[in-house]
Amino acid sequence: MATYSGSLYRRRQIGSAIALTLCGIATVLGLVFLVWILWTTLIHGLSALSPSLLTEMTPPPGEDGGGLANAFMGSLLMVVLAVIIGTPIGVLAGTYLSEFARGKKIGEAIRFVNDILLSAPSIIIGLFVYEVVVRPTSRFSGFAGGIALAFIFLPVVVRTTDEMLRLVPDVMREAALSLGIPRWKVTLNVLYRAASTGILTGILLAIARISGETAPLLFTALNNQYWSLDMSQPMANIPVVIFQFAMSPYEQWQNLAWAGAFVMTAVVLILSVVSRSVLNRKGGK
Amino acid sequence: MSEALASLPADTAGVKRRDGAAGDRIFYWIVLGCGLFVLAVLLAAAISMAMGGLLAFRTFGFGFLTGTEWDPVAEQFAGLVPIYGTLVTSALAMIIGVPVSLGIAVFITEVAPRSIRGPIGGAVELLAGIPSIIYGMWGLFTFAPFMSDYIQPVLIDWLGPIPLIGALFSGAPLGIGMLTSGIVLAIMIIPFISSVMRDVFLVVPAQLKESAYALGSTKWEVVRDIVIPHTRTAVVGGIFLGLGRALGETMAVTFVLGNTHNIAVSLMEPGTSIAATLANEFAEASDDLYRSSLAALGLILFVVTFIVLAAAKLMLVRMAKQRGE
């Protein structure tokens, strides 16, 4: 009897060891793919980097040389536009959720919808902006691209603002209000100041997210082969250029796509790692 | 959360002050407006897409969902092929991604020494930060050749001759296709699913686990019989969150799916998905019916992902409420 239960225990032990080993293998697998993807981008990207990347325009098909200057500029302009539109609306909507909607049904509804928007397919946002901006104005434009990015930017900011303001202790609100300061001043001068690091890193996180977005730009900003600062016209941008160049049969285009991909990934990862580490430190306390 | 503060109406907070009351009221309306704007965005997106797709639905009726024809020249459009591609690639992504995510979450919370938990968790989250177009490029230039050289020939040789499931693994090792897309999608959604699982595994009460250990359970038995049942709702919520991502993911799939409008039994064959069709064809769709058909596809994707994400959110909220009590 003793040997029987002993062997059963042994069998369970072995089963456990096998299952946990499989878990370890799954983790290794995940890390292998991470390293593989980053390595590919690094190798292809570094070998394609050159000074002309930042000084020359996107080349016509089959031609040597050329860079991505117009695409970098276009991306920058659209991201800036998205930040300008998205930050005030996002911060204020987050303020509403955390300060005025506690326990209200409408607050729950907005938070719910915001979380849906946060994970909604970005190509849907592109389609939406196409219908409401591109179609009425009947042209693809940098404005449309920036607005599409703003809709992806917005939910991230709403969420982090909401969370960061809720981390501010109620004692601070009560102390400030008991001095007779109106609520809007308390929010602006006390709460925003207390939560500023968190809100700022949330904005950085959102910038990281929209910098790599491709799908919504495909039919809002489209592309432009020339240097253009006119946001009412179609505008070059890094993600769409990478998409077109990578899918093309020309080797020079593919090299440029890798160089662009490398720069974009580096920017996005640095932004998101920095903002995440700050957020984690704040949230952990 | 202080209840007193919550019940305090915004416009009475500074009622005695000259500037206070008016300022507060204005501030309240501004933030309320911004909050409602978020609500309005979703509605506007749904309405605009429904209007955009109206022409296609009116022209083709219910057949739009069941037909397989996609011929811009003849102006015949039906959505079954991209819908099928979306469902198959997402299903593959879930079949591969869910067990791996579960493994990673269990490894981080139960197996790994405390000192390496943080770095591994951070590395997996890094995967989530990589732009999806990078997955696409990597998939097309590095992973697809790897698949066609090493993985697909083996699958075709070993699984192809088996009756029934053999049909899934027949054909030429092209590299691109449903299977490759499914794997790339799986890699993309693993960070989302595993981080949800990890977060909820961490809050399982220690007493529950300790009592199971005290009864002589092995580590895996504790995970299987205590941790997972206890967190079931949130785990399913996390899986749905991943599914929502997989259904709507565009760039990664566009690169490796092949973008051909055909339905094949074999997973090696190229196909197309809703998102890939939109990405490839929308900017070039010149006439109204073509564009409307694409918008109609977008609407279908929107409705499906909305349902999936809403379900995910509801399950995660329920879990968070349980935790709060």
Q: Could you walk me through the main structural features you see in this protein, from its secondary elements to its overall organization?
A:
The complex is a heterodimer of chains A (285) and B (325). With 285 residues, chain A is an all-alpha fold. Chain A is built from eleven helices and no strands. Chain A has helices at 2-48, 52-55, 69-100, 105-119, 122-137, 142-167, 170-178, 183-211, 215-218, 238-247, 251-284. In chain A, helix 7 runs antiparallel to helix 8 (183-211) and helix 10 crosses helix 11 (251-284). The mean pLDDT of chain A is 91. With 325 residues, chain B is an all-alpha fold. Chain B has a two-stranded antiparallel ribbon. The two termini of chain B are 14 Å apart. The relative contact order of chain B is 0.14. The chains are: A mainly alpha (285), B mainly alpha (325). At the A-B interface, helix 1, helix 3, helix 4, helix 5 and helix 6 of A face helix 1, helix 2, helix 4, helix 5 and helix 6 of B. Chain A: It is a multi-pass membrane protein. Chain A: Residues 72-275 form the ABC transmembrane type-1 domain.
